[in-house]
Write a structure and sequence with these properties.
Layout: H1 2-17, H2 36-39, H3 55-58, E1 70-75, E2 79-80, E3 90-102, E4 112-126, E5 129-132, E6 139-143, E7 146-160, E8 162-176, E9 190-205, H4 206-214, E10 224-240, E11 257-270, E12 277-291, E13 293-295, E14 301-303, H5 312-317, E15 326-335, E16 339-348, E17 351-361, H6 362-372, H7 381-388, E18 389-399, E19 408-417
Antiparallel strand pairs: 1-3, 1-19, 2-3, 3-4, 4-7, 5-6, 7-8, 8-9, 9-10, 10-11, 11-12, 12-15, 13-14, 15-16, 16-17, 17-18, 18-19
Helix pairs in contact: 6-7
Length: about 425
């Protein structure tokens, strides 16, 4: 009975992770995309807003680009995972909190320097199962298999002409697929491990760089100018000890993952407020990934070095997928930092689907109000709130008629405190 539960749960996980194409790994839930914003854009982590509290899970270097004070994000409610199987208790959820300090506010430096730290938690609860004894179907107990990852992220950011974020995440991973105790084999399908992610993000604000280097303003109208940002990211995830469920000789590797990504954003910004206000922008992102595990026919395995078979030209710029390469594509159109429309696609081995989503942000709505009502623009609490605080409601959805994750929906909130008004 208990072995059947473990096999059933593992089958559900492997269905999504598509680890079969590259060799089976343990805890494939680590390959899921927790960011709701990302899930609307093909599950892509490159080009996510640094204010997105769950963005550092994709790449810890993103946290080094965070120019706020505090951010937090959470699912509301938890996502029904693999709805095709109609298991009401199968839930996926995540939450995160980050804090950052811009040292230039306290020190005289020739460049911008940011230090930041964050914590996130990812949970996959797989329902409630009944434990029966050898004498009949009468329940002798219950068990709720689950997997989780607790993550601590640390990052620094440097800004001079371009912005560079470098970060590292320390993970504590737990997997419990069947109970230990009466009527169960001791230690069966219960394991834990630790892992490290590291990555960096480089953002080039092209228009800003031209203005700084040439000493000119590129305003096309009073307080209106173009914006063109290019972001490159690279990350290595889940570097750690194998998961030991039964004995060390049968340990399973973690899903070590290499990611390369590129994003660009083009649009128009206003200088009406303290920071640039994005009046309208369009962003496109592409990302290539590979699970760096090679399993031999005899069951042995080894990790692959570097970024595996990923080609930046073919897989990132060209967007091509392959037997070993995951391809993710996403786009976002936003108006006034108030309304966000998103779409994308995922092309993974054994898994192809479309994605969509939208977002609504309080700070953008308040800025629209201030732009339309100049009489309340100066010295009011409305402006302080618009410039320093934000509540963001985000959604994301997967659609693929031949996919087990068809009709998977994500909803949640992201809260940002950029700074405390009147406090330097």
């Amino acid at each position: 009975m208990l072995k059947g539960i473990a096999l059933f749960v593992c089958l559900l996980l492997v269905t999504f992770s598509s680890a079969r194409s590259q060799g089976e790994t343990a805890v494939p839930f680590l390959l899921f995309t927790p960011s709701i914003e990302a899930n609307g854009m093909g599950g892509i982590g490159t080009g996510l807003s640094p204010e997105n509290a769950l963005a550092p899970y994709h790449n810890p270097g993103t946290l080094g680009l965070f120019r706020g004070f505090l951010s937090g994000g959470f699912y509301a409610p938890a996502t029904n995972w693999l709805p095709l199987f109609q298991i009401s208790d199968l839930k996926y959820s995540a939450w995160a909190v980050n804090a950052g300090v811009r040292l230039n506010d306290y020190l005289s430096l020739p460049f911008n320097l940011i230090v930041a730290a964050g914590y996130s938690r990812i949970d996959l609860n797989m329902g409630r199962f009944t434990i029966t004894g050898p004498t009949g179907p009468q329940p002798i107990g219950y068990f709720e298999p689950h997997e989780s990852s607790s993550n601590e992220t640390f990052a620094i950011g440097l800004g001079y002409i371009m912005r560079i974020g470098v970060g590292v995440t320390f993970k504590s991973i737990k997997s419990a697929l069947s109970p230990v105790g009466t009527e169960a084999e001791q230690g069966l399908a219960t394991a834990s491990s630790s892992a490290i992610d590291y990555g960096f993000a480089v953002q080039l604000p092209v228009v800003e760089a031209i203005e700084n280097l040439a000493g000119v303003s590129l305003e096309v109208l009073p307080k209106i100018k173009p914006v063109f940002d290019v972001t490159f990211t690279s990350a290595k995830s889940n570097r750690g000890d194998p998961m030991v469920y039964v004995d060390a000789a049968q340990a399973d590797p973690l899903p070590r993952l290499a990611t390369l990504g590129l994003a660009s954003e083009l649009g128009v910004v206003s200088l009406l407020f303290g920071d640039e206000w994005k009046v309208a922008t369009f962003k496109i992102s592409r990302e290539a990934q590979q699970v760096l595990v090679n399993r031999n026919p005899d069951g042995t395995w080894k990790y692959i070095d570097g970024t595996g078979d990923i080609s930046f030209a073919d897989n990132v710029i060209g967007g091509k997928a392959g037997p070993k390469i995951y391809s993710r594509k996403g786009w976002q159109f936003q108006i006034a930092e108030a309304l966000y429309l998103r779409g994308g696609s995922m092309d993974l081995p054994y898994l192809k689907c479309k994605t969509s989503g939208f977002g609504i942000q309080l700070s953008g709505l308040l800025k629209v109000l201030l732009a339309l009502a100049p009489e309340i623009r100066e010295g009011t609490w409305v402006r302080d709130l618009a410039e320093n605080f934000d509540i963001q409601y985000q959604t994301g959805s997967y659609t693929g008629t031949s996919s087990p994750i068809d009709d998977t929906n994500f909803k949640g909130f992201n809260i940002v405190l950029k700074k405390i008004p009147y406090v330097r």
